[in-house]
Specification:
Largest sheet: 5 strands, mixed
Oligomer: single chain
Number of helices: 3
Distance between the termini: 32 Å
Shape: elongated
Radius of gyration: 22 Å
Strand content: 15-25%
Number of strands: 7
Strand order of the largest sheet: 5-4-3-7-6
């Protein structure tokens, strides 16, 4: 069974655009590369043909995975989100209790995650640890190098 992921309208559009790019641009290029390599003669010793076929196989796997993600994507109406607890698409300001650093994250689907822009996956250790917490709660989160404790300072939506 596939996993349902929740997306903003912008995130879902980006996902669909990427899938269309793979299908409409990359797939024909891969077929062209195979045809050109095939025209060069003996296929048994044609490294270019083998490379083109392998690239096509990888592309088809990627297209298949993207199709599955899009099929299981659900559009979320951010205006209907409950801001009393941390959910997908919540903006949350947290304080690391060890070093007193404050950080703001937006929890998003894995394919939308981008740490540079403050978007973390709900499937990440921190994302999982924050889900369901309320303002004032402390989240103890297991990360690869130990445990972190965060205080939930504020929850809101854009």
């Amino acid at each position: 069974m596939s996993k349902v992921s929740y997306y903003t309208a912008e995130g879902l559009k980006k996902l669909k655009d990427e899938l269309n790019q793979l299908r409409d641009v990359e797939r024909p290029k891969a077929s062209e590369a195979i045809a050109e390599a095939r025209d060069k003669g003996d296929l048994s010793e044609n490294a270019e043909y083998d490379a083109a076929k392998e690239a096509q196989g990888l592309l088809e796997m990627r297209i298949s995975k993207m199709e599955e993600i899009v099929a299981n994507a659900r559009l979320i109406d951010e205006s209907q989100l409950d801001t009393s607890k941390v959910l997908v698409h919540s903006l949350v300001k947290i304080k690391n209790l060890a070093n007193k650093m404050e950080v703001t994250y937006k929890l998003v689907a894995q394919s939308e995650a981008d740490l540079k822009s403050g978007k973390i996956s709900v499937d990440s250790p921190i994302g999982k640890g924050l889900l369901g917490k309320k303002e004032g709660d402390t989240a103890e989160i297991n990360v690869p190098n130990g445990k972190l404790n965060f205080e939930i300072l504020k929850i809101w939506r854009e």
